[in-house]
Amino acid sequence: MTEATSATEATFAKSTDAPEHLSWDSGLRRTITVYIPLALFVIGLLFPFYWMTITSFKPDHEMYDYKQFNPFWVNSPTLNNIKVLLFETRYPQWLITTMSVAAASTFLSVFSSVLAAYAIERLRFTGAKHVGLAIYLAYMVPPSILFIPLATLIFQFGLFDNPIALVLTYPTFLVPFCTWLLIGYFKSIPYELEECALIDGASRLQILWRITLPLAVPGLISAGIFAFTLSWNEFIYALAFIQSTENKTVPVAILTELVTGDVYQWGALMAGSLLGSVPVAIIYSFFVEYYVSSMTGAVKE
Amino acid sequence: MATVSIRDVFKRFGSTEVLHGVSVEIEDGEFVILVGPSGCGKSTLLRMIAGLENISGGEIAIGPRVVNNVAPKERDIAMVFQNYALYPHMSVRDNMAFALAIANAPKALIDEKVARAAQILGLTPYLNRYPRQLSGGQRQRVAMGRAIVRDPQVFLFDEPLSNLDAKLRVAMRAEIKELHQRLQTTTVYVTHDQIEAMTMADKIVVMNSGNVEQIGAPLELYDHPNNLFVAGFIGSPSMNFVKGKISGNAFLSDNGTRLPLGHGQGGSDGQATIYGIRPEHFLLDPAGVPAKVNVLEPTGSETQVMAEFAGGNIVAAFRERITARPGETIHITPNAALAHIFDAATGKRLIA
Asked: How far is CA B31 from CA A3, A196, B81, B243, in A?
């Protein structure tokens, strides 16, 4: 968000340098056209996080009493909700399971997608285009339909209630996505570089490893982030294929374990959601520049 | 070093044929330039020598070995690309060392070869820089350095100077030529710029729409073009053409102007022909043909005159200072011995 703001500012700064016929471009105009819409947008996006955060630290009696306590503020912050979450539920284990499942399926998906995307985009084997299209069509099948046949498979392999079931099923939507993202990225790398490496004596795998992948790092990172986020937040497969409390992933566990009957333990629920979204947010913030450049830029020689 | 033989080579992309049986013999150590307008197939031919395109028919041999089915890396060639194709994520040193590193050459040997190439090209201070930190000319040199390091049998250049500005192009032209004289490696060079071809080549191959029009030394092509295409393509400003027919021992243009013929020009009486004369082969002659001056372009060393002559527009270049103004008429005559007669139907040069 800050990136976008500064970019807009830069364009506006440039236009104010321009000749005087642009002088109507006043501070007021900029406020109305840029800052107010941006502020509304930011508030709209960040409010759920804010709500989640304050609820996590609210004691129970404050949570339901809007008359006595300002609902948008915490009067007597408490760590009780987090204590409940960490020590009275299996939250740490859910977190570890989710983390390992997301990491493993991300690795698996990015690895196969690199090979698939490279083959489709660069080797141009007979039918490459159709294979690319077929992969895309696979992505079109909604998980809410796909989980039924997948469940049969999982039972047959004896993987029901095993996190490995998730590691193996998440690639069904991650691979198509990453493959298409990487095809686009590989396309932006000049083919001449590979031809040159070919003449220099490199084999296809050497070209992939020493020329294409180093240049595709931004693309790899955004594919990785996407895959990680999607598997981290995945719900339906995790709900269908996992039964025992200790093997659940965070999104499913929060909903199934922290709601007892029709009682919502809002404090613990919100604390669980907050802690669950922190790892993803951290990863995003580290790689945001690569992420932006892979969406907008190409490899420059 | 090696010879390169291109024998009756065809190239088809699907049902489109882009090369229609091209044959070129390249001697050991020769600097050969493939030149022609864009789309004539010269780059395709070069890429076929490199092994980046399949050969649809005929054969290409490097040295005694036919390479039709040999992978690029086995052909012992090095290629310089139009956009240099430097690996952006590697330093200049690593760029130059890449081929040897892939071949698992010993480190000492790599260092020695890179140092030597860098020294030849004046790149020693830049070895640790990245391509993006170099100017166009320096990138061009790195691309050549990458080729030199490998000591290949053949150098291939694909329009290497077209991304440089005019001044740098002239400088790099001389540099490449000097490099060739120093290394004596067989070189095939593709360009669309006939000046580059004329100044650098030992032998020029003029190509047009998938065919070889003529092969020869630069001045041979200049003095004895086989056909209208070569005559018009080689030389700047290009040759003037006047339409007409042979009439006795002279040429009669369509508007009735008589132009003299020298010895050795063919064509039978009454045959429809085209009279070709280079700009610098006009002489000022009070008894000559009147030409109405349209534009004068003095360059100092010579003056170029654009004029209406024998029913068409021509360019003539004179060493003399021309005092005529636009709109005035001067009298000029072509140097008959240096004129060419082409068959109007086939475009071939007619020789007696």
From this structure: 53, 21, 17, 36
